[in-house]
Amino acid sequence: MTPAELSRTVLYAVRRAVDEGELSVTVPERAVVTPPGPGGCGDYATNIALQLAGAAGQPPRRVAEILRARLAGEAFIGDVVVTGPGFLNFSLERNASALLVEEILRRGRRYGHAEGFSGTIVRLRCPAEIRAVVVTDALARVLRSQGDFVRIECDGRPEPEWGTVLGVDSGRFGGYSDSRTGSHSASRTGSRSDSHPGTRTSGPGTLPDLDVTVHPVPADPLPLGRDAARWALLCPAAHDRPRIPGDHLVQRETNPLFRVRYAHARTRALLRNAADLGFHPEPGPVSDAEALLAALGDHPRILTTTATHRSPDRLARHLVAVADASLPLLPAVLPLGDEKPSAAHRARLALAEAAGAVLAGGLSLLGIDAPDHL
Question: SS3 for 67-107, per residue?
């Protein structure tokens, strides 16, 4: 059960409590599900009871107990505990982690992507400034992963090097306008992207033009090359000043981009080594991997949040969290010495492969390569 699925389960419990007259509230659109904080327990927690208590006219712990009675016994939920002022804490059944890994391996790099068109058309507009163009390019990739149809306009002609060096897909930029003359030009590729079968350019599901604004770069990022330059431009929040050149090319643990790519390359190496030893990944329960499982389960929500808040930096930070949670697990994946591969080794290998798929898929959305070898 992923956090998104658990959120839907919580909302269903709220709806049942409302229908049965125990709560008189408006069912919220979403329930925030996160790893438990200090004083919490289990795999996930939510503050939905505290959120609803005021409208319900009841103490938060009473609201939490009402919901706990409806959540206990749900599929894949082993236990529900109320802690603190009214936090609901969930312990998932042991096979829930295996099902999560199976889902990631089934979807591969597209885990967390929407299936089909969302019905939303997003229009992005950015200045002809190198960071703004790269952020817009990455944001468009994430929005498309969530099923949105994206149209881009640039207030000026992007420099050719931004495509050749930084991998900006200039064909996706539907046109550019010259702020000096007010004229507008649309490329042939861009003009084709202005239409989408079965969509409307106005009406429900269509968003107004969205201006992409970022803190400009203090120096030319092109000497960093594609991957390091894109990371340097995308990792900071839009209003933060990027570090150019920074340590983005240094291959050591202090470099977050290196940790992300290194963790992915390690997962690929483990799969190759395991194949040489004659065993393959098989999802199953894995002990001492709660942080990694929580991060992997949170990936679909992160993609949705990144698209909603127009902030590729959220995805970049999430990939660092996945990598940092993965690295402690990896040394225990392969058997040591004369040890024979066991079900635990196969389960850890499957979890490592799932982590690698999430890292590779996330880097791809940022326009950054995920090499199998470093």
Answer: HHHHHCCCCCEEEEEEECCCEEEEEECHHHHHHHHHHHHHH
H helix intervals, the chain: 3-19, 48-56, 60-71, 94-107, 130-145, 160-164, 188-192, 226-234, 256-277, 290-297, 299-309, 312-326, 343-365
**Nearest to residue 231, comparing CAs of 327, 371, 373, 365?**
365
Going by C-beta distance under 8 Å and a sequence separation of 6 or more, which residues neighbour residue 91? 41, 42, 43, 77, 78, 79, 80, 81
Give me the phi and psi of 121, to 5 degrees please.
Answer: -110, 120
Name the residue with higher pLDDT: 194 or 101: 101
d(Cα 96, Cα 102) in Å, to the nearest integer?
A: 10
Amino acid present at 42: G
Angle at 130 between CA 217 and CA 123, to 5 degrees: 120
Look at the alpha carbons of 107, 108, 112, 114 in this order and tell me if their dihedral is positive or negative: negative
Identify the burial level of 122 via C-beta atoms within 10 angstroms of its C-beta, where 0-12 means exposed, 13-18 middle and 19 or more buried: buried
CA angle 105, 110, 112 (to 5 degrees): 95
Mean pLDDT of the chain: 87
Q: What is the pTM of this model?
A: 0.75
Query: 55: which 2 tokens?
Result: 């409208």
Reduced to 3 states, what is the DSSP secondary structure of residue 153?
A: strand
Give the pLDDT confidence of 76-116 residue by residue, as tens digits: 888 999 999 999 999 887 677 888 999 999 999 999 999 98
DSSP assignment string, 323-352: HHHHTTTGGGSS--TTPPP-HHHHHHHHHH
